[in-house]
Amino acid sequence: xxxxxxxxxxxxxxxxxxHDVSRLRRTVIDKALKPLGITRSQWWVLSNLARNSSHEMxxxxxxxxxxxxxxxxxxxxxxxxxxxxxxxxxxxxxxxAKRVVMTRKGEEILEQMQEQGADLNRETxxxxxxxxxxxxxxxxxxxxxRLIEMDADLRKNSG
Length: 159
Hints:
By secondary structure, the protein is mainly α. The protein has helices spanning about 10, 15-35, 40-50, 60-65, 70-80, 105-125, 130-159; strands spanning about 55-60, 85-90, 95-100.
C-alpha cells in the first residue's frame, strides 16, 4: 500500500490503534494488580530482575534495561525494598555500585503477577486465532526493528 496517496487520517490509524491498545492494556493490568498491592512499574522491575538466573543486577544496568532514569528507578526500588520484594547490596566488584537482588518474597509476588498476567493475556486474545497472534507479533517485531534503525540514524545524523 502506498501511504503517500492515503488520506491523512488513515495514514496514522495504525499508530493510534497501537497507542490505544497499549494504554488500555496498561489500565487493565494496573486495575487487575491493585489487589496484590503492586504496580505495573514495580512488576516491570521484578520481571527484568528475573531474566537473570541470579535474580539480581547492578542498579545502573537495571536503569539502562528499563530505559528509565536513576531517580525514577530509585523511587521504584525504595517502594519495592520497603515491601520486602528486593534488597540493595554493595557490589563485591565495585563498592560504589549497588546490586538489586530479588528476595524470596519478590519471587512469590512475581509468580502471582505472572499468573494474573497470563489470565489477562488469555482473556485479551480470546477472540483472536493463534495465526493472527503470530502475524501481529511478526508485524510488530518488524516495525520495532525498523524504528530502532530509524532512531539510530536520527541519533547519528543529529550528533
